[in-house]
Design brief:
The protein has 81 residues and is of the alpha/beta class. The chain contains 3 helices and 3 strands, in the order E-H-E-H-E-H. It has a single domain, classed as Trna Endonuclease, Chain: A, domain 1. It has a 3-stranded parallel beta sheet with strand order 1-2-3. Helix 2 links the parallel strand 2 and strand 3. Helix 1 packs parallel to helix 2. The longest helix has 21 residues.
Length: 81
């Protein structure tokens, strides 16, 4: 299960993580999840995620992944032109 939040000045909090984990386990019967945000996570939200097999992607990780993929696309395009 995946959850995405577009926050600028607000971190994902423990209650938000609890809600996600509850839905993940109860409603979707998932044993793992990914929570993505453009900002970051509070320490208590990170702790909950660790306990319940939730992978966290903050804004920095998301930006790094996009940069990495852009480089791969450019390399592919250069080789195949």
């Amino acid at each position: 299960m995946v959850q995405c939040k577009r926050y600028t000045n607000k971190k994902v909090t423990s209650p938000e993580m609890q809600k996600f984990i509850g839905m993940m386990i109860t409603e979707h019967k998932a044993d793992r999840g990914i929570y993505i945000t453009t900002s970051d996570f509070t320490e208590s939200a990170k702790e909950l995620a660790r306990k319940h097999n939730v992978e966290l992607w903050n804004g920095q990780k998301l930006a790094n992944l996009l940069i990495e993929q852009r480089k791969k696309i450019q390399q592919y395009a250069h080789k195949n032109m």
